[in-house]
């Protein structure tokens, strides 16, 4: 499998030739389910529905009040009528047998669906009657009749005591048939309900269209912000008609322009800095090699010569000469180590891949079998610039040192290969181990020691990308990709 594929890019450190992502995730990933458009539409719809219910409630209340009033009027009318009859009976113009004269009340005073009842002192004179329903009432749905009967109808009845000369003669109670009142109420409010529902629907649609059109610039701004958050510094916003939004666009564009400039300057600076550092090291290494190493070799040779001559002429000097020889050889060993650190000779003499193999071998020797370091390099990478080769060497060197130091791995694999896309060739480099990956006491966000920072600077100088961090399958991975064609590397 290609090294790129077994290394997910979700890791914690990254560096790119453009800006690193400023904010992880997009607007839609931030746990916010609803955007502004839907929020506004939902709120306006809620207000419309609230108005709709309030209007319906008011219509119901008015119809109930009217029914209650009609019951009171009927009770009053019936009471007066019966009181009048009682007075006629007292004056002898009417007979007690005809009390109560109910026809007068039941025939003329009752509204459709209305009932009236008289409970007198003598139960034999009790009367009650109801009028029929009006044919043009609209039949209400069952839920409405149920609701009306349960909550409203019982409060609609009217009543009145029948008193004559200060004495209670009975009681008159009036009410509406529950079906009649709910039908009447439904007949009154159903056209209103239909119209309101239609209006609410139309209002929601119009609101959606208006809000959608007014917020179109906001979606442009959001797209720009998302692209900026992903690190695209080339993004610019168009001018808007609204002055406030236009100002946002101007400031956004000015800021991204500044950011792009600053990022480019920083990358150039890092590029020059690490290149100069490499050149300086190479120069130092050459000086040390040509001057000090030559002279040390001469001192060693001279000490050997003195030892040889002293064996015959002055044996007491043999020990000192041998000491001098050993000192020269130790110094040479230390110098070689410093030279390797400053600039491995193999990079110039043997090429990049051979010096990386030597580096891997060196780590294998140090690990004494506890960790197996290996390298796979498909190409020789002879065409890379000398500075580029040095950067790659240093990156691998630091990654292997880190693996030896932190990973406690069984295997550490270095892979290097070249790929081309439609525009240019790229070098892909990965160092993957199967060690501990992430130490529990290490905060990943702040896990950037000087080693990783140095790597990042070198990758910036290579105009490439770097990703490093613990792998989901365990272990630690580092992936670097940079353009190898002349204009990039
Ligand atoms: N191969 C690895 N395995 C586990 N942890 C690692 C590995 N490489 C780096 N780290 C972690 O990243 C941190 C930063 O590394 P680095 O920048 O090289 O600093 P240093 O090596 O000086 O600690 C290390 O301290 C270590 O916790
Ligand atoms: Mg390190």
Explain what you see.
It is a single chain. The chain has two domains: 165 residues, Heat Shock Protein 90 (2-Layer Sandwich), CATH 3.30.565.10; 178 residues, no CATH class. Helix content is 56%, strand content 14%. The N terminus is likely disordered. Bound molecules: adenosine-5'-diphosphate (ADP) and magnesium ion.
What proportion of the residues is helical, as a percent range? 55-70%
Spatial extent as radius of gyration: 49 Å
Mean pLDDT, all residues = 83
The spatial strand order of the largest sheet comes to: 1-9-10-8-7-6
The secondary structure category is alpha+beta
What is the N-to-C order of secondary-structure elements (H for helix, E for strand)? Answer: EHHEEHEEHHHHHHEHEEHEE
Bound molecules: adenosine-5'-diphosphate, magnesium ion
Write the layout of secondary structure elements.
Blueprint: E1 13-15, H1 36-91, H2 102-108, E2 114-120, E3 127-130, H3 142-151, E4 158-164, E5 167-176, H4 178-214, H5 216-229, H6 243-313, H7 318-342, H8 345-349, H9 352-367, E6 372-377, H10 386-407, E7 411-420, E8 425-433, H11 450-461, E9 465-470, E10 476-483
Parallel strand pairs: 6-7
Antiparallel strand pairs: 1-9, 2-3, 2-5, 4-5, 7-8, 8-10, 9-10
Helix pairs in contact: 1-4, 3-4, 6-7, 6-11, 9-10, 10-11
């Amino acid at each position: 499998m290609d090294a790129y594929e077994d290394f997910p890019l979700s890791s914690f450190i990254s560096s790119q030739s453009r800006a690193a992502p400023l904010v992880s995730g997009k607007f839609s990933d931030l746990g916010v389910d609803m955007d502004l458009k839907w929020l506004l539409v939902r709120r306006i719809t809620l207000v419309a529905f609230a108005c709709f219910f309030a209007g319906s409630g008011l219509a119901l209340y008015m119809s109930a009040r009217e029914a209650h009033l009609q019951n009171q009027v009927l009770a009053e009318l019936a009471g007066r009528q019966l009181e009048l009859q009682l007075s006629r009976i007292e004056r002898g113009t009417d007979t007690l047998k005809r009390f109560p004269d109910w026809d007068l009340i039941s025939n003329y005073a009752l509204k459709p669906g209305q009932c009236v009842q008289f409970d007198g002192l003598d139960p034999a004179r009790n009367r009650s009657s109801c009028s029929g329903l009006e044919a043009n009432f609209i039949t209400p749905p069952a839920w409405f009749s149920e609701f009306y009967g349960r909550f409203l109808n019982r409060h609609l009845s009217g009543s009145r005591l029948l008193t004559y000369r200060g004495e209670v003669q009975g009681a008159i109670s009036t009410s509406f048939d529950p079906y009649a009142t709910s039908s009447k109420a439904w007949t009154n409010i159903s056209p209103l309900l239909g119209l309101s529902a239609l209006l609410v629907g139309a209002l929601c649609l119009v609101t959606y269209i208006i809000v959608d059109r007014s917020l179109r610039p906001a979606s442009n701004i959001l797209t720009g912000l998302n692209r900026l958050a992903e690190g695209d510094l080339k993004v610019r916003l168009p001018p808007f008609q609204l002055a406030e939004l236009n100002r946002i666009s101007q400031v956004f564009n000015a800021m991204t322009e500044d950011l792009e400039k600053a990022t480019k300057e920083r990358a150039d600076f890092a590029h020059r800095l690490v290149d100069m550092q490499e050149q300086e090291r190479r120069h130092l290494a050459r000086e040390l090699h040509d001057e000090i190493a030559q002279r040390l070799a001469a001192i060693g040779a001279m000490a050997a010569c003195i030892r040889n001559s002293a064996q015959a002429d002055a044996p007491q000097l043999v020990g000192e000469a041998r000491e001098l020889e050993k000192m020269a050889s130790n110094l040479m060993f230390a110098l070689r180590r410093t030279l390797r650190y400053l600039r491995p000779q193999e990079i110039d003499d043997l090429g990049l891949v051979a010096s990386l193999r030597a580096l891997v071998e060196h780590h294998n020797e140090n690990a004494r079998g506890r960790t197996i370091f290996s390298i796979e390099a498909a190409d020789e990478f002879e065409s890379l610039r000398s500075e580029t080769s040095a950067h790659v060497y240093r990156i691998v060197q630091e990654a292997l040192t880190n693996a030896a130091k932190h990973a406690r791995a069984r295997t550490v694999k270095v892979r290097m290969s070249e790929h081309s896309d439609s525009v240019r060739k790229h070098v892909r480099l990965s160092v993957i181990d199967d060690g501990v990956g992430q130490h529990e006491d290490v905060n990943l966000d702040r896990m950037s020691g000087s080693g990783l920072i140095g790597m990042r600077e070198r990758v910036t100088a290579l105009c490439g990308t770097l990703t490093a961090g613990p792998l989901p399958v365990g272990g630690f991975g580092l992936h670097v990709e940079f353009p190898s064609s002349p204009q990039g590397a």
